[in-house]
Amino acid sequence: MRRIWLARATLAAVAVSVPVASVAGFVQGAQAAPVAASKHTAAAQLSFNQQAATYVKNFIGDAYVYGGTSPAGFDCSGLTQYVYRQLGKSIQRTADEQFREFRPISKSRAWGGDLVFFHETSDPNSYVYHVGIYEGGDSMVAATVPGEGVQWQSFAWAGNTVTFGTITH
After folding, report:
1. Do 77 and 99 contact (CB within 8 A), yes or no?
2. What crossing angle do the helices spanning 2-14 and 48-55 adopt, rounded to 10°?
3. Which residue from 40, 41, 136, 165 has the highest number of Cβ atoms inside 10 Å of its Cβ?
């Protein structure tokens, strides 16, 4: 029940271009059918990036499983691949492959729903060992480690070893 409420609240906060009243399930003072907010659906009115940034939050708290690519358990790149695939975009499997597939962008040009890549060194062409879905500021949602699972987290600790990538803009 709390996840449904959180999903609805998140949709309302993210959907700048959609009237908040229609996201909440009401139309011009008349009650409409409730917005379907489940763990495995996304709102069609939102841009792809908004959908990705919103949809990934449904998996916060799910288990981390090395090599995992489903809600039964995710690793970092399995989570990003799963979210993008559920929204109609097929991307590569590993963090480094995803980095090579995505167009590099600066943090100032990154939108929620783009990917955050973690490099071994400050060289932006170095190997990428971790990836998450950007949420704005210094935040992302990522599958972390066993015992912690999928989390909303800051990536500020990574300093200049982080880059951003997009396939949508």
Report:
1. no
2. 150
3. 165
Of 3.30.1050.10, 1.20.910.10, 3.90.1720.10, 3.60.10.10, which CATH number belongs to 47-166?
A: 3.90.1720.10
Separation CA 32–CA 61 (nearest Å): 31
Report how far residue 54's alpha carbon sits from residue 48's, in angstroms, rounded to the nearest whole number.
10
pLDDT digits (tens, 9 = 90+) for 95-137: 999 999 999 999 999 999 999 999 999 999 999 999 999 999 9
0.85 cut: is pTM over it?
Answer: no
Q: How many CB atoms are located within 10 Å of the residue 32 CB? A: 12
Beta bridge partners of 140: 134, 153
At residue 83, what are phi and psi to the nearest 5 degrees? -60, -50
Which burial class, exposed, middle or buried, applies to 115 when counting CB atoms under 10 A from its CB (0-12, 13-18, 19+)?
A: buried
